[in-house]
Design a protein that fits this description.
The protein is an alpha/beta fold. The protein has 6 helices and 14 strands. Helix 4 packs parallel to helix 5 and helix 5 crosses helix 6. It binds nickel (II) ion and manganese (II) ion.
Length: 239
């Protein structure tokens, strides 16, 4: 499978069977995304919460390409009102889309739909665990602070192979909290996100990766450039 970072929290995951899942599609107004929105052709869009830097182009892409948007109940209601194809789910539940399992899990953040004239309550912020056809599990934490269930629930029960965590600070965890979260989630590979998009969330990802190295040297950290693809080989990580 292949992962592409599109800057900020936007990631495209392509399974071995070629199914593309786009998470938090903040593309056209994302200062760190160089990929034109027309070039993306996902099979499914997942939105972690209602903030514009995550919801992004979800409606436009869904509309122009007839792709459903997976979101929490409140955001799904909003999408239904806008005539946008969607799949409503909530924290703790899973759906299966063409042999790919999508589980919505917790995040400690807010989720108002903040890009409409009068901000609408958007339910709870969430994270996603995506289990591909070959069993590879990718955890995208969304925007979040540190919380203990990262270890006792997400790490120990769901056991992600890859964890994607924010390190930008101010609105989410910073590099140190991100590294602690990474240790708790205990993946084989960790990827930092939600930094350097704007001056207020500027971070050196090496600070994060050095913390991870100190906390658990067995976890590999992958610092991607925006637009970069990474090919993950499940077998090479098997003990
Ligand atoms: Ni947010
Ligand atoms: Mn955000």
């Amino acid at each position: 499978m292949e992962i592409r970072w599109l800057g900020h929290s936007a990631f495209e995951i392509t399974s071995d069977k070629g199914i593309k899942i786009l998470i938090d599609p903040f593309i056209s107004n994302n200062p760190s995304c160089q990929v034109p929105v027309e070039e993306l052709n996902p099979d499914l869009i997942c939105v972690t919460h209602g903030h514009v830097d995550h919801f992004g182009d979800a409606m436009e892409i869904s509309n122009s390409q007839s792709v459903p948007v997976v979101a929490n109940h409140e955001i799904s209601l909003y999408l239904s009102n806008q005539g946008i194809e969607n799949v409503s789910m909530n924290i703790g539940g899973s759906i299966v889309f063409r042999d790919i399992k999508i589980t919505m899990l917790d995040a400690k953040h807010s989720s108002d739909i903040d890009f409409v004239e009068d901000t609408i309550p958007g339910g709870s912020a969430a994270s996603f665990l995506i289990t591909l056809e070959d069993g590879t599990k990718i955890f995208h934490s969304g925007d979040t602070g540190l919380f203990r269930d990262m270890e006792t629930v997400i790490g120990e029960i769901y056991k992600p192979d890859i964890a994607i965590v924010p390190i930008g600070d101010k609105f989410t965890m910073g590099p140190f909290e991100g590294a602690l979260a990474t240790m708790w989630l205990n993946p084989k590979l960790a990827i930092p996100m939600h930094y350097d998009t704007y001056p207020v969330i500027e971070q050196d990802p090496l600070v994060y990766s050095n913390f991870v190295k100190q906390l658990n040297p067995k976890i590999d950290v992958l610092v991607l450039n925006s637009g970069e693809f990474y090919e993950y080989n499940f077998e090479s990580y098997e003990e």
